[in-house]
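Why do we care about 3D structure at all? Because function follows from shape, and shape follows, mostly, from sequence. That is the central idea of this module. The next example makes it concrete: a single protein chain, its amino acid sequence, and then its structure expressed as tokens.
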Amino acid sequence: MIGYSPDGPLKSRIEAIAGTMGRPDRIFFCGNLGNALSAKVANNYIAVINLLATAEAMNIGIRSGIDKHTMYNIIHNSTGQSFMGDVVCPVPGVIKGSPASNGYALGFRTEMMPKDLGLALDQAKEVGARLVLGEPTIDLYRRAGEDPRCKVRSCKNLTI
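And the structure:
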């Protein structure tokens, strides 16, 4: 994500440099300086809420008696499919290598989630975008970050 016009005279030079840091087909010119940060903040907003939704959905299924692998496969192959469910899946033993399957020792620390979500809430307020899910989600992650079971760990779902 780059805060530069897709029609700017330096586009090809920027693509060449940015292409050395990642996949060239995933370079996105977001317009004005600062817009790339806005795009990242908005994308992180989705990720944070999606992780929580995945945990809650898995919790519903597991508590209803559905095997966690079956529940994961249903979500993965249906409309609930997402990166957060497929890579970060918050249920232990579902995705090998996920934080949940490694004692929540790897990944993004729970205490950092309110920071990312807070940036999105601040950005939304600045541009006049109404958000419904942000406040209850940031409250939950603040409480989770203070819980001794979550400190210095990846985003652990406390309800499963």
